[in-house]
Design goal:
mainly alpha, rod-shaped, single chain
Length: 108
Amino acid sequence: MNTAGTIDRPHTHDPKKQAPMTPSTSEPTGSATQDFTTNGATGSRQKNRTREMQLIPEALARAHMHERLHDAARERRAMRLATARRMQRRAERASLRARRALAMAVMQ
């Protein structure tokens, strides 16, 4: 089986063992090949890429809302902690007042 490879599936991946490229006789030297579009995989990829591009603002908005929700939760935790510390200080002051009142009552 002595078949030559194709562009997509070369016979070998080693460039030294591949046949050298020969210039085409049908087109003049230095000419550019015409652009063409395919309706196969490239078109599908382009369609997906376009859809992804259209969804970028939605993804950014979703990420922004996610970040804002985390910030709000962090803020709520900070407020609860501040409130708990305030209440703890208030309870400690009330405890000291009660101990002083008890000491004053015992001394009399």
